Amino acid sequence: MKFHMPSKLYFGSGEIKNLGSIITEDLKAKNPVLVTDAGIARSGLLEKVLPQLPGIQVFDQIEANPKSDTINRIAEEMRSLAPDLVIGLGGGSPLDAGKALALLCTNGGRIEAYEGREKYSQAPLPFLAIPTTCGTGSEVTWVSVITDVNRKFKMSIKGPKMYPAVSIVDPDLIRTLPPSIIASTGLDALTHAVEAYLSKPATLITDTQAVKAVDLILGSIEGAYTDIKNNRQDRENLMFGSTMAGFAFGNSDVTAVHCISESIGALYDIPHGIANSVFLPPVLSYNLPACREKMAGLARLSGIREIDDTAASEAFIEMIKNLSTRLSIPRFKDLGITKDKFDQIAAMSFENNSTPSNPRPMVKQDYLNILENAYGQ
Ligand SMILES: [Fe+2]
Fewer CB in 10 Å around end: N or C, the chain? Predict the structure, then answer.
């Protein structure tokens, strides 16, 4: 068994105030650059951090499901500035983009050349992650997911030197997050925790973190969704849950839910968390026979009192469906995905590196069945 988590984590409300000193004293950086998206730039969050970063060059063109063309274009400009630190501020997209750019600054070339594990020859620049949503987990993982626009495929670029050097997780940064983003990113975090727990590579350490993450997320997501501004405890618990889920899946794996949502994300600009929310219940139903005891354990943790493991697991799946409905997550058929794409989505999902981690074996037809059943609900 191996557990790897080399990032230094600062967690706490108001922690962002220490950004300047973390950059100069912890990271000894003199020429950092910052990667974010236009939404963060508009939201006022960027203004909150800029006074601590005098003269910093900001790259705010990262889109949802970041694209290889965008990354390659920004990398050329970024290299000319000779930075010594990349800061990522935002949800999963700016954080994943920041990791990819830190790699390209020291290795050259285009991001497509680094798909896979440890394809870099030089260590990437140090990366400082500042999440502003409650779901990505990217602040504590070694992977960057970038869409190859030519192949319409989500590439995983990863390696032990791609962990953020430092992460600042400040729950106050999600204080103004709109309810729809709390719902989608919070359910992404729940999916990370549940999949990490049920995945084949799960260990005692990842199980401990995943179970606590499920408990924290289920206990806080609705309070945060309803009134995040005034719910400090729920903000903190949701962020703790999200980061702990990141520890867990980063050291075990995700399963078929993410295989499907990553395939959909490569073809459509559907938020990652929405796709996960839609496919978590049907994939759990498929996996139930292979992980009945563990799933029933999650059910009991969530307050379900059924004694029979199958009944408890089914009640857990139903509870997640009802939670998604209360959080206004759309149904699969409302996402604008046409049935003629199911075959391609199923094929891409089967090819995903995480398919072998699913607790129940899956072939392409199983993915196709899940897509068709989910569409009918
Ligand atoms: Fe995810």
Answer: N
Q: What is the pTM of this model?
A: 0.95
Distance in angstroms (rounded) separating the CA atoms of residues 157 and 100: 8
377 has pLDDT over 80: no
Structure token digits, residue 263: 């395939």
Tokens representing residue 308 in the block: 């029979």
pLDDT confidence of residue 182 = 97
Pair 132, 91: CB distance under 8 Å: yes
Distance 78 CA to ligand 1 centre (A): 27
- The alpha carbon of 238 and the centre of ligand 1 are apart by a number of angstroms equal to 15
Put residue 348 in one of left, alpha, beta given phi > 0 → left and psi -120 to 50 → alpha. Answer: alpha
Whichever domain contains 122, its CATH number is 3.40.50.1970
The residue range of the domain holding 278 is 179-375
Query: Residue 205 contacts by C-beta under 8 Å, 6 or more apart in sequence?
Result: 1, 3, 251
Q: Identify residues whose C-beta is under 5 A from ligand 1, the ion.
A: 188
Rounded distance from Cα 276 to ligand 1 centre (Å): 7
